[in-house]
Amino acid sequence: MGSAPSLDERDYVREGATQTAVKILVVGHFAVGKTTLIGSISEIEPLSTEETMTQAAEPVDDLKGVKGKTTTTVAMDFGRLTISDRIVLYLFGTPGQQRFVQMWEDMARGALGALVLVDPERLADSFPVIDLIEHYGLDYAIAVNHFDGAPARDERALREALDLLDDTPVVTCDARDEKSSAAALTTLVRHLLDRA
């Protein structure tokens, strides 16, 4: 039996750079695109704990309004994105189902902020997620994940529906697209810097 390969600092930090690691949560309700966003943007092979959904999950995971979902995150997702010579983001994706909420406390520890993914067709599913983020005292930005065929939503109406503070950033993104996901994370980082 061989030993696991060892990792050193060079696997996580660019050579010659002095970087600050920033822990960011990527959160949202079930089937909103968290795993997709981290996968689209991570500069390392992302850790994904996606598993095939079974019949046992049918009574627990509400697939109403969700098309073609066959897998679900059962622990967490993890990725990394270097945004400058000084800052590297470590992205932790949380599972969206209520039964995984107990994991959030550990994942929130040490996080500087959260990117909250929202499906505009299922806004009510976002309320418990935003409540948790606020409970843990994290600053956040809202990223409205644009799904194919979904109509564009008015930002003011979204803000009102989600009961957001005036300074909470709201952006539209496509979690499948690297540039769009990067823009959403950049909005969050700028918000965190403004609040610092």
TrEMBL record:
InterPro entries: Gliding_Motility_GTPase (IPR052705), Gpn (IPR004130), P-loop_NTPase (IPR027417). It comes from the Bacteria. Gene3D superfamilies: P-loop containing nucleotide triphosphate hydrolases (3.40.50.300). Keywords: GTP-binding, Hydrolase, Nucleotide-binding. It holds the Pfam family ATP_bind_1. Belongs to the GPN-loop GTPase family. PANTHER family: ATP/GTP-BINDING PROTEIN-RELATED, GLIDING MOTILITY PROTEIN MGLA. This is ATP/GTP-binding protein.
